[in-house]
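Quarterly update, task 2.4: S-adenosyl-L-homocysteine-bound model.
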Amino acid sequence: MNLCEKTLEHFRHQMVREQLLGRDISDKKVLDVFKNTPRHKFIETSNNKEAYGDFPLEIGSGQTISQPYMAALMVQLIEAKKTDRVLEIGTGSGYQTAILAELAKEVFSVECIDVLAERAKGILSELGYGNIRVKVGDGTLGWQEFAPFDKIIVTASSPDVPGPLIDQLAAGGKLVIPVGPRASQRLILVEKSEKGCVTKSDKTGCVFVPLIGKYGWSEGFE
Ligand code: SAH
């Protein structure tokens, strides 16, 4: 069953009220952008109401789009603002890329699976985003050419925080990443002070697909 835009908007607003505001998402800019971004456009499903459910969804190639709450929590934690240049690792469906593009100045997104990167690029350009660059590659290496970044968001889980990402974080910057074993991880906020000191804080438990790369899990990881 495919619902019309008006009905989907109703489910989207309900998602924001119940799943985001009903938990601990209180940043008005974050709530507004989740209200206005058409999540169903990023998901191929025969039932597009599912796009607004309180769960992750499959996006092909064995990957998932994160639960809306988790995407919102990560965005709230990095406090994205209009002057920020943001690096995203794990473009996936492109949904979180779109959210970041609304809140920040520019978004640089790295995806290791080319079919996902191409699909996301297509949807993002159809929706008219002009401040996003997507590349195919190993995001554990960051994107040196455009570093440093004010904010970094990693949407796949790693045994530890990849060193190149800490190096490419600007002074005063924030990075959010799920860290820990395959079955479940902790969402870690890494902050770099103006003087370059790095501190880490544990925000909550989470479960993400693995970050496969030189400074993440190695290929074939079970
Ligand atoms: N933010 C995405 C969630 C994607 S799931 C969304 O809103 O849809 C995590 C993504 O990270 C997957 O697409 C996976 O292919 C990608 N990924 C895993 N390891 C990676 C790496 N080393 N570099 C870049 N992307 C990676």
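Highlight for this quarter: The chain has a mean pLDDT of 95.
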